[in-house]
Design a protein that fits this description.
With 92 residues, the protein is α+β, with helices and mostly antiparallel strands. The protein has helices spanning 13-32, 46-49, 75-87; strands spanning 3-8, 38-43, 59-62, 65-69. The longest helix is centred in the first third of the chain and has 20 residues, at 13-32.
Length: 92
């Protein structure tokens, strides 16, 4: 099952950090699963961001589920959320 990751935010430094954390987490998972398919999108359009239940950016969405908002998650957290998404158990 492919992973669809979205970083929500206006393009600030915090948003960029969240994107880097997601990339690092994907690299960890790719070592375990070389066939892993994933896409990362950076959503900066306010109208699109408000489609998710988010009060503060940056936000992180995995397979259309908001898993983190208003802070920069640790790589380990993102890895756990990605594993949950791959297992079909949802997110945080």
């Amino acid at each position: 099952m492919p992973l669809h990751i979205k970083v929500l935010g206006p393009g600030c430094e915090a948003c960029d950090w969240v994107e880097q954390q997601a990339i690092a987490a994907l690299e960890v998972l790719a070592e375990e699963n070389p066939d892993l398919e994933a896409t990362i999108q950076h959503i900066t359009d306010y109208a699109e961001i408000t489609q998710y239940p988010i009060l503060f950016t940056p936000g992180l969405v995995i397979n259309e589920k908001l898993v983190c908002a208003g802070r920069i998650p640790r790589v380990e957290e993102v890895v756990a959320w990605l594993r949950q998404a791959l297992d079909g158990t949802g997110g945080a």
